[in-house]
Design brief:
By secondary structure, this protein is an alpha+beta fold. The protein has 7 helices and 10 strands.
């Protein structure tokens, strides 16, 4: 038997953490002295401790680790999911590194790194209008692709003729990613098949090309233009996706941002 301090040294888990694992029934000591409360662990429990440490390296939550220790099928399936999540993080960090290097180059040249992607002309439109098939829901932003698939399926079901790229209309007043009021729409030719007509009487647009991580800078540039020209935003803004991010290189994505406005 190993005392908690001995087990701590061998497993590289602090005594404080071992006590917490005991409290949450993740790794309980083999024996507890009833007189002094000292905890003792068996050498076999080192295997469990090492497995816990390994799963923590893979970013398992403690609740997931508890399940993984007793369910081999769950462990296998969750490891596959974690591998996918880590691969996506690799892609995200690669894109982030590329963006950071671009910003460094812009700063070195004396430019404003926030707006180094904001090069396209901002355009004012008297009116934009589309007949659309759309679905509006309160969603987690992570589920956006699922909502888009639902709209695509509805267009196919109605056998409508698509005339332009998918549109997302943001109805929420604030950015609440886990509870976001969005409407995904696809412009179609047939008026009688449309869910409704999307009309903006007076709006400014910004044709953005680049990594989605730069979109906030594009909005900042657009907002600056709106203020300088004495306009104010009056309706939910919307985005038109000219490229499919699932197949388009990150730096080649194209989005047209529309802000409905009126004169102050």
């Amino acid at each position: 038997m190993l005392s908690i301090s001995q087990f701590s040294r061998v497993s590289h888990i602090s005594p404080k953490t071992l006590r917490y694992y005991d409290e949450i029934d993740l790794l309980k000591p083999q024996e507890v002295n009833q007189e002094n409360g000292y905890r003792y662990y068996s050498s076999e429990q080192l295997i469990t401790a090492l497995k816990i440490q390994k799963l923590k390296q893979y970013e398992f939550r403690l609740a997931e680790i508890r399940l993984a220790l007793t369910d081999e099928l769950y462990l296998h399936d969750r490891l596959l999911e974690k591998a996918g999540e880590i691969q996506q993080k690799i892609v995200d960090y690669h894109d982030l590194q590329a963006a950071l290097e671009g910003d460094l180059a812009t700063l070195a040249a004396g430019g404003n790194f926030l707006f180094n992607q904001a090069t396209e002309k901002i355009t004012y439109h008297e009116s934009v209008s589309w007949q659309i098939i759309s679905i509006r829901k309160i969603i987690n932003v992570k589920d956006f692709s699922q909502l888009l698939q639902e709209v695509v399926a509805l267009v196919e079901l109605k056998q409508a003729t698509t005339v332009y790229a998918p549109i997302t209309i943001y109805h929420s007043m604030e950015y609440t990613p886990d509870h976001y009021d969005v409407e995904v729409a696809i412009p179609i030719l047939e008026k009688n098949l449309a869910t409704r007509q999307l009309i903006a009487q007076g709006c400014v647009s910004y044709h953005f090309k680049g990594n989605y991580q730069k979109l906030p800078a594009a909005y900042a540039q657009l907002g600056k233009w709106v203020d300088e020209h004495q306009y104010e935003v009056v309706d939910p803004f919307f985005e038109v996706y000219l490229t499919d991010p699932s197949v388009t290189p990150a730096d080649e994505n194209e989005v047209v941002i529309y802000l409905p406005v009126k004169e102050r």
